[in-house]
Amino acid sequence: MTTISIIGSGNMATAIGARAAAHGHTVEILGRDSVQARAAADDIGHGATVAEYGTKPTGDIVFLAVLYASAVDIVTHYGDKLAGKIIIEITNPFNADASGVVTTPGNSITQQIAAVAPADTQVVKAFNTIFRDVLASDRKLDVFFAGGNAKARVRVSALLESMGLRPLDAGGLETTHALEWAGILLMGLARNGGGFGITLGAE
C-alpha cells in the first residue's frame, strides 16, 4: 500500500480518503482551512494526518479534491512541489444550473491543470462520475478515468483496484472533456428519476 495526499477537505475529499484508508493506504490531508482539514482527517480515521496547506505533499499520488473554479490556481500555487507526481483531479466544471459544462473540447479542466503543472507531472481525471454517498458505501463501483500518459494510467488503475473499485481507462487528456460531460449525464439521470444513489458503469 502507499501514501496518498489529498488537497481539499470537503465531502469528496473525506469520502475518497476514507475509502483509501479502509483499504490500507496512508492518507494525508492538505486544506486551506486547518480546522476543516483536521475534521476531515478525524472522519477518515485509520491514522490519517494533516499537513500544512502549501507544503510539498508526501504522496506520489495527489488527489485534487476541490471545486473546479480554484483547481488551476491551486496547482499554480503548489508549483514545483508537485513535480514528478500524479495528480488525480475530480472536478466537474458545471455551469450555474448543471445543465452543461463551462469548458470546451481541447480545454477541459484537466488539460488546463496539466498546462500549469510541472512538465513531469501527470494529470488524470477520475471520480467525477460518482456521487459522494455512493463512494462512501464501499460498494464495488466502476470508475472512469482519463488523462496523463500510459504509465500514469497504469498506476492510477492499480490504485483504484486496491480501493475495491473497477478502473475503466478512457484514454489520454483528449478524453477528459468527455468525462466532464459524463458528469452532466449522471446529474441528468439523478434529477429525472434516478436519484442520487445511482452511478455510471459499463457492461
UniProtKB/TrEMBL annotation:
Keywords: Oxidoreductase. GO terms for molecular function: oxidoreductase activity. It comes from the Bacteria. It holds the Pfam family F420_oxidored. The keyword Acetylation does not apply. Coiled coil: none annotated. Residues 3-93 form the Pyrroline-5-carboxylate reductase catalytic N-terminal domain. This is NADP oxidoreductase.
